[in-house]
Design a protein that fits this description.
The protein is mostly beta strands and 118 residues long. 5% of the residues lie in helices and 28% in strands. It has one domain. The structure holds zinc ion.
């Protein structure tokens, strides 16, 4: 059990003791904090038309073109909470959107502020 964590998003926290990404909701260890946390999550690569269906018949339906856009949803393998969603072109690698300077944070040289009480 970790004793020192930093909350990063609503459902993602950084465990400074074990240097891992964890789920806030169920404490599932997602993976090493030196890696992209999304690699440790379950993902659902969705056809955007299932979320934004056509409003009209024909080419100008206002539905997203699945050959240009995919909607990727990320879920915690431990509890199933949806942790993130992103829109990517087909074939694009998962976005690496959070990268923390772990060494600076652990050494106290990071610009860390106290977290609010939960
Ligand atoms: Zn979880």
């Amino acid at each position: 059990m970790s004793t020192d964590t930093v909350r990063i998003t609503e459902y993602l926290e950084l465990d400074l003791t074990n240097v891992t990404w964890n789920c806030v909701r169920c404490s599932h260890v997602i993976g090493s904090a030196h890696e992209n946390y999304k690699h440790g999550l379950k993902l659902y690569d969705r056809d955007p038309r299932t979320i934004y269906p056509a409003r009209f018949e024909g080419a100008h339906s206002f539905a997203p073109d699945p050959t240009w856009c995919r909607i990727v949803e990320y879920y915690c393998p431990g509890c199933g909470v949806q942790m993130e969603t992103e829109y990517l072109p087909p074939g694009h690698p998962l976005a690496h959107d959070i990268q923390i300077d772990i060494d600076a944070l652990l050494s106290g040289t990071g610009n860390r502020t106290e977290r609010p009480a939960n």
